[in-house]
Specification:
about 80 residues; single chain; GIY-YIG_endonuc_sf; 3 strands; globular; GIY-YIG_endonuc; alpha+beta; GIY-YIG nuclease family protein
Length: about 80
């Protein structure tokens, strides 16, 4: 099982979209400022995640969520329902 996840910075208006096989460990790494691309935005809340079966599906969904239409779907359908 793989997870596509959305983090929101507690200090800034900034979101991060990523994927991983180990959600708890990856979330902890982001909050511990161990991830280069997010360390300046920590700490985070986990806004949402989607579980998929394969790494390929996770990669494709992450890529889609980072597009304009994917971000729109994410904001309107997923984040508003949480």
């Amino acid at each position: 099982m793989y997870y596509v996840y959305i983090l929101k910075s507690k200090n800034r208006d900034w979101r991060y979209i990523g994927y991983t096989k180990e959600l708890k460990e990856r979330f902890a790494a982001h909050n511990a400022e161990s991830v280069q691309s997010t360390k300046h935005y920590a700490p985070f809340t986990l806004e949402a995640y989607v579980a998929v079966q394969t790494k390929r599906q996770a990669r494709e969904l992450e890529k889609y969520f980072k597009t304009g239409s994917g971000r729109s779907v994410l904001m309107k359908r997923i984040l508003q329902s949480t």
